[in-house]
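re: that chain from earlier
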Amino acid sequence: MSEAKTPRRRSLLKGAAVAGAAMSAPMVAVAQTTTMRFQSTWPAKDIFHEYANDFAKKVNDMAGGRLKIEVLPSGAVVPAFQLLDAVAKGTLDGGHGVVAYHYGKNTALALWGSGPAFGMDSNMVLSWHYYGGGKALLEEIYKSINIDVVSFLYGPMATQPLGWFKKPVAKVQDLKGLKFRTVGLAVDVFKELGTAVNPLPGGEIVPALDRGLLDAAEFNNASSDRVLGFPDVVKNCMLQSFHQSGEQFEILFNKGKYDALPAELKSIIDYAVQASSADMSWKGISRNSQDYIDLKTKDKVKFYKTPDSILQAQLNAWDKVTTEKSKENAMFKKVMDSQRAFAERAGAWQNDYSVDFKMAWNRYFRQPAKKA
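^ sequence. v structure.
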């Protein structure tokens, strides 16, 4: 004879069934969304601001609703050159810019963007940063100036043009007296070459050119320069320069906000930085090459190769400026020595192994000169 199920027994059986179902169901983490407010140092229409949004989207997509980064354009909360302080103080949770913009805090910071980097391109500078000691040096500098941030460098930039000029320059003497815009340690280099430098943020350059407050200026690349309106006010662009041939982007987090994140979200950020670095490089090649065509065909801009005499003068000026900065700032010398040691071996490998790609490109696309 079966035993009747008492109310107590039925309750126990029901509880066991619920527990068993819970044990067999997948464990799903439920957490409140952490929202972070970022600002870039670029206008909303600039491809650089687009890169900032691309990074944020990668984080947001991978975080599955647990972390959301919202990106504002330059000036939405603070001016472009005040981004570092705003992130350190918590006015912003994070930001997107370049290390060279912090040059006024410590001159050594300009070495992550300004100058020839001992012959390294921007991807090699990133290699030095992550595998040659640069990251520890940057953290040391930030700590010395009481900047409490977590910094990620990414996104190797292409070599930047010498700049946009109302008249093309053929020799070093043509630079003397020009009212010129640049940033970072390039300010000192161009001063050494005789220009009067005004380090304006990106969004203020073209209006200054239009009003005659500048005679010439550099910003960065074909896509940014075109959308910012350079071809509307200037029709001559000089290509190739050593003043910013190895620059990259910086993603900043307020350290307190970053440290409060769980380990898995920190990993998502780290991998999103790496993925964004590759994606930015690929997008940049596609967009810059097309905008270069449009600048020439639609905007009727004339491009000139910067004469070797000016490039050599840049290197001479760079050596003079950095020698003085190294005497004034022990940290500056420390960073220079670290870069030099890495560049000596990495550059030897790169130069010995790399083929001359121009040879192949010229074979298929360069038209032979017409005979007289």
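The radius of gyration is 26 Å.
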